[in-house]
Amino acid sequence: MLALTYGARKYWPRGLRNNNPGNIRHNPANNWYGMTGQDRDGFVIFGDPADGIDAIGEIIDSYQRRGIWMLRNVIETWAPGNGKDQNGKAYTNSTEAYLSHVMQLTGWQAAHVPQRTEGDYVGLVKAIITHENGRNPYSDEFIAASLARPT
Fold first, then answer.
1. Cα–Cα separations (whole angstroms), residue 89 to 27, 43, 76, 137
2. DSSP secondary-structure letter at 44?
3. CA 77, 81, 82: angle at the middle one, nearest 5?
């Protein structure tokens, strides 16, 4: 397992504290592999960061099964401009800023179609982790291995 070495855990960004680097919100319809619960704000807690990274890949796969292919559409679905959590509390995301940051980190255009078989998911997951947490402490190898795990 990867050991994060900066600062006390209580000061880590939520996604890293929860082993949920994509900041996936809890949904009772999803029983994620490795999920141990949820925090008070409704974000999933995983037992291991590899489980949280695998869940990011599973979500992107589900988008593609629904015809959500281009990077722009993936990010608009991942971080919609407006939404409500499971308790009905409204939240907002700056989807355009999120997309711009992911494009900057990956070097892709908004119309790029990420392909799992071409290794694009590693780049996309790294960008999501960086945007969600302000940093990405995981190596490409760790992310690739987490995405490749059977669940």
1. 14, 13, 19, 30
2. E
3. 105
φ and ψ of 64, to 5 deg: -65, -35
Tokens representing 37?
A: 């619960």
Please give the pLDDT value at position 83.
Answer: 82
Task: Count other Cβ atoms within 10 Å, centred on residue 79.
Answer: 21
Distance between CA atoms of residues 131 and 101, nearest Å: 7
Nearest to 56 by CA among 120, 110, 116, 128: 128
Whether 41 and 18 have beta carbons less than 8 Å apart is answered as no
Q: Quote the pLDDT of residue 7.
A: 57
- pLDDT tier, 63 (very low <50, low <70, confident <90, very high otherwise): very high
Strands 35-38 and 90-92: unpaired
Beta bridge partners of 45: 37
Residues 6+ apart with CB under 8 A from 26: 38, 42, 43, 44, 86
Decide: pTM greater than 0.85.
yes
